[in-house]
Amino acid sequence: MDASDSPERPDPARPDRGRPLPMAPSTPEHAAEPDADEDRFDLLRRREFLGLVGAGFAGLALPECSLHRPAEPIVPYLEQPEELVPGVAVPYASTCGACPAECGVLVTCRDGRPIKMEGNPEHPLSRGGLCARGQASVLDLYDSGRRKGPASGGEETTWAEVDAAVRRDLVAAARAGRQIAILSGTVTSPTLSAAIGELQRVFPTTRHYVYDPLSVSAILDAHERTHGRRVLPWYRLERARAIVGIDADFLGAWLSPVELAAARALGRRGEDTDVPAAWHGQIEARMSVTGANADQRIAAAPSTHLAIVLTLIEEIALIRSRDPDAVLPPAPADVPDLPGVRAMARRLAEAPGRSLLVCGSRDPDVQLAVNVCNELLDAYGATLDLTRPSLQLQGSDAAVDELIAAAADGRVGAVIVLGNVNPLRDHPRAAELAAALDEVDLTVSLSGRRDETSERADVVCPDHHPLEAWGDAHPHVGVYSVFQPVLAPLGDTRAAVESLLAWAGREVSAWEVQRDVWREVLFARQERHISFDAFWDEAVHDGVLALESEELAAPRWRRPEPLAARPTAAALADGELEVDPYASVALGDGRQASNPWLQELPDPITRASWGNVASVAPATAAALGLVEGRVVELSVGGATMRLPAHVQPGMAKGVVAVALGHGRRGMSEVAANYPTVKMFGIERELLDGADVTPLLAVDRVRVRLTDAIEPLAKVQRYDYQTEPFTGKTRPWARSTTSGALAAASAPAEHGEADHAEADHGGDHGEADHGEAAAGGHGGGHATLWPGHRYDGHRWGLAIDLGACTGCSACVIACQAENNVPVVGKAEVRKSRDMHWLRIDRYYDGAEDAPVENPDVVFQPMLCQHCDNAPCETVCPVLATVHSSEGLNVQVYNRCVGTRYCANNCPYKVRRFNWFDYAHDDLVQNLVLNPDVAVRTRGVMEKCSLCTQRISAGKSRARTEGREPLDGEIEPACAQTCPTEAIVFGDLNDPKSRVAQAASRGRAYHVLDELGVQPSIAYLGRVRNRADEPHEEERS
Amino acid sequence: MNGDRRRATRAVAIGWAALVAVLAFAAPAVAEEATPPAAAGQGKESAVLFARHCTKCHTIGEGDRVGPDLKGVHERREHDWLVGFIGAPGRYLDSDPIAMALLEKYDGVRMRDLGITPEQSAGLVEYIRLASEGDLGGGPRVEPLLEREVAFEIDGPSERSGLWPAGIVLSVVLLAGAELARRSRAARTAQVVVVVGVALGYWSLGGQALHRLPGDDQGYAPVQPIPFSHALHAGEMRIACVYCHHAAEKGPEAGVPAVSICMNCHAVVTNRKGRPGDSRRKGATDAVSPALAPLLDVWASRETDAPRSIEWVRVHDLPDFVFFDHRVHVGNGIHCQECHGPVQTMERMRQASDLSMGWCINCHRHEGQPAPTHWQRSEGTLDCNACHQ
């Protein structure tokens, strides 16, 4: 229709057409016309009609320009990388650089950026598991607080200038005959060692000082005394039938927790029996994750550990008819026998060659005694392997002392600090070291982070993040693993190898150096490949190279010198406590302290996040007048530390335990963070807690109460499996002992088949057995619901509480996989934590009847994906519905945030977005998983059983024209679990691992009596112990 | 009364004029979407058969390929001979002199038995006749898409609501109602009803494609940095969709091809055959099509310090809370055109469907169509978590 060729003026020749007619009857002047009504049907005059049509055309144009979204570019590759399919995750094998354990990982990359770390199932040590810190290390990569380039004197500079300055100073130091000190943690990398060697060759005054912040120096020194070789044994826990841990949190943060937890779980896995095949006893001052998992546990202050080991020696020697006096003097007489110690010795001695002592004490005498004990148990060559020992920690406690002495004397010209330590923060003599460094002309830090040492250094030459760099590791003799870069460095950083070699005068890439080293050192030792390139490609592809043939000669036992007599320790003065500084599961030695995921990870035992606490036993707390949250001041020497108290059942009396790694005052904010309460202007979370590193050097500390109260950011406030008001036992995390199981199974042979099942609630009182048995597997409930038909898959989980160690790897894995936000300390205090998967920790006993040394049980708690889901029935907008495969589905875009579902959930696993946990940090946003929606404010969320991984697995299988295999699809929690405590699969497939686990005798559903019919089955924990708990330990 | 009648006539005329005006500008859109209902049935089946069996070796009017050009073959040969030959070429090639002569002429490449009925054979002959005479018109001409066998004619998704005929009827009813209202002296009502009626007619006849809620981008066809023509590449050149969008079979995203994929051909092909600038033409210059300049430009930049790529403008964009997997759909035999429309006819890429949840669900419920066989083992297609993760 065209307006232009129509006459707009009234045609005088046709007056009727041009006659003015009233147009808008609502206007007053027209309404007033008497004949208006009659003419009103002549609605539009011609030109008005045309005007409307014109406006219509204008309206047509309007939406084209205004309603469409803004143009969004798609920028394709110039050249398509062959292995890369857009939207498909590619795993690259590499090595975890988060701690010295150096586990094997698969780095999941999406469109060229790493978004998740997972354990490498082919790694001989970590066996597919990965700990919380490893899981979180991918976030470190995107820490916007990382150093972006070289700096000199605090000013950014260029690599050429830095290299010239450093080289000039090194040459000057070498000419003057002064030392060039390289200070680092343990370096297992053959390539980095070669680079250090090259520097030593060019500058002969170079000396390498090695210390470890979490030191096992005492173990190494003890083996030098007993075996003539400074070596850390390979703990073959999978071979052990009896393990006693002394002050070694090997399931939590000690040495190589993933490897040791996996090995221990392997050793405990019984064949077709519910009783673990191995027994584990733990002697420790604080309550550690390892102690919580032990079958028997003794709380003993660190000062008694030597006497305990000597008692063990005495008893074992007695049983095994050996003469202990020929080896060591008997236990000091003034230490009374702790109850239960001799029983532990008996259990160890019952399995010679299949038992061992694992001790984490920093006291060389204790470690020497432990070696003697292990020798008496015939552990060497069996459960302790010295032919293929661990190389993960080789540092010496004396190294820093020597460096301080040398530097203070002016014998050191330059200090180069490698990136794997932060000595001005993680060493107890940091202050003295800082003073000594003033005497040194040049201090170079290779740290990629902004830490205390690099802030103090003259020159900073930042190293790459492990995910950006080539590298290698040699965690055990015979095991080599490769770091491969999965993205180009985000900043102008440079590999440590390249920096060291540049100063030695060689400009080469780390990749070339590494290939040269591997060609010369490793290629010759293998026989599989003729071509080096094929060998190299396979090693990079697999991420790990196991050289079975590589082993050391077995050292012979040497009788050590007897222990020097010790002066009897003075009794604790008033207000003085023994101190037990420990590495926490979340932060370890503190190098990842700026990682918000780890800061918000609740400690498995204290259940507190964001900052450390001073834990004391209830009796000690009562004596001191402490209550939870009361701030205490710990003072030693000139240092004082203030931190809130926590009353910890199961701790030894007269001991205060504090976690290391907290309180990074220098950098007082999490480098990048999801703002807590943006509306109140608090954008960044203070790095809370106290720096307690000085306590590593002392045994005792003075404790003073302050008036301040600091509420802990705890995510669990009730510790017992009893109803708070009625006191009725509700064993939702069931456990029993092998003794109780055996007693129950005896009558079962006479036809009471249900009895064994009933006894899984065994620890919790006879009265509940009937109810627990009635719970059964959800059968026999009256229900109003028609039920669901699952024709295809029916997904479910089985969680073995006996295998779960509470290590919290799954919590962080879930957070990384599902874009779970960090909410900050203030919100955690309001119980607004967002973790989809939490690990509840329960003590036995009740609130009004606490047990001094309680049994602990961990229970991973997540959405139970109930068949009769209470949340689904109350949602007014159908935002939470049931899928045809048994999942309880939360549809974020439909949710309006009534929170009825969370209120109706008996498991309290739903999480509400109280705020937009803003993603303002664009670098940090790179870690977000593009397969999972980022939720907005006002939306409920919860565990989806990693529905995106199920979809991907199904899609992959369907593309290949098959059904998904059992074990092919794994949610993030199950994938990362070092002990395979979480099993995922199709409950409709009777042969699947999960269906078989769920049909075992000790399988049950939590709160089964409600009849909600969960898809998550739990397997009750069985403690490998005769009968009544604490029968022997209680004094 | 006379005046009333005159005014009534005028009212109806204005109403209908409005409708016709709407029709006039909506007509192209309607024509584009029109599917010829008359050509269904036998002719459609023949078209599909021809695409499936014949186009590998024969053309109609585009010259000899492996076998002879079939244009006008119905005039050259007896009808029965043709039907018989197509039905059983092996027998004819062994014994029939005409067939044997043809076999010799075409390098001894034997036509294989198609395994079709005599009725289908006759249908093919009829199809060839129609095609030779250019008589197919809007009929069932099937573009032989090379990426897979064409099992049925691919209709693009309708860009209009299926309610449009009802809308037109209702519009007419409303205009008639306006007339009634006028007669009962409810002139004000008549005014409203005419406006509603005209609006409805406008909506029914194409306006709906242009006015919609925010977020509904059906018809969105932004100008791209390179005037890339799917009609040329996918239609005329018959390049398979997955040659460029190779990720569609392997992953959730179909992906925009890397520049290197363009350059697989455009390193050699710099202009259209026969157009000015075609270097193969007699007396041609080496002129490169100006449309290719940005492509060659970014390709050259890969060797430089500042490599750049083309910044295409995204056409299909789902909300961030929707997760779509191409692999599953393509792998289950769903044609690209079922969602993306007749891409092989689009000069500039256009979003053919509204990509709304209702549109997805209609297909997943297979309303108005039989359930595809591949859905027999996928019960979960209506689960929320299939798309919302």
List keywords for this structure.
heterodimer; A: 1035 residues; alpha/beta; Rossmann fold; Dimethylsulfoxide Reductase, domain 2; 7-stranded mixed β-sheet; B: 389 residues; mainly alpha; Cytochrome Bc1 Complex, Chain D, domain 2; 3 domains; extended
Short summary of the structure?
Chain A is an alpha/beta fold.
CATH topology of the largest domain in chain A: Alpha-Beta Plaits
Q: How can the largest sheet of chain B be summarized?
A: none
Please identify the top-level CATH class of the largest domain in chain A. Answer: Alpha Beta
Coarse shape of chain A: globular
Strand proportion of chain A: 15-25%
Helix count, DSSP H or I runs of 4 or more residues of chain B: 16
Question: How would you characterize the overall build of this protein?
Answer:
The complex is a heterodimer of chains A (1035) and B (389). Chain A has 1035 residues and is of the alpha/beta class. Chain A has 32 helices and 42 strands. Chain A has a seven-stranded mixed sheet with strand order 6-5-17-16-15-7-8, sandwiched between helices. In chain A, α7 runs parallel beside α18, α8 packs across α13 and α11 packs parallel to α13. In chain A, 55% of the residues are buried. With 389 residues, chain B is mainly α. Chain B folds into three domains: 83 residues, no CATH class; 95 residues, Cytochrome c-like domain (Cytochrome Bc1 Complex, Chain D, domain 2, Orthogonal Bundle); 157 residues, no CATH class. Chain B is 45% helix and 1% strand. Chain B is built from 16 helices and one strand. In chain B, α4 crosses α5, α5 packs across α6 and α12 packs across α13. Chain B starts with a helix and ends in a 25-residue tail after the last helix. At the A-B interface, α4, β1 and α30 of A face α1, α9, α12, α13 and β1 of B.
